[in-house]
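Researcher: I'm preparing a figure for a lab meeting and need a structural model of a single chain. I don't have an experimental structure, so a prediction will have to do for now. The sequence is pasted below. Please return the structure as tokens so I can convert it later.
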Amino acid sequence: MTEKYNGWTNYETWRIQLEVIDGMTLEDFGYDLHEVDTDEMADVEKLGIALEMYTCELIEGQSSGFALDLAHSFLARVDWTEIAEHLIADAR
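Model: Understood. Here is the structure written out token by token.
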């Protein structure tokens, strides 16, 4: 069992939420509040994938080589679904 970090699944999830996603809205990712439902896991997972793709593109535009490898290792531990659920909840 992993320990929570500031209420999030882990440090990586908290840090990406804080540094990359915080302040963004569903609309920033091409979604309307009426199109997503936290009770519909497919909606949450689809948004999570969009968040991951956005973040990966951002990181890949700023890193290369070993630093990029480290960044991808960090991003692999992020719980994108948790961030998506949080973004939807904030929109409500």
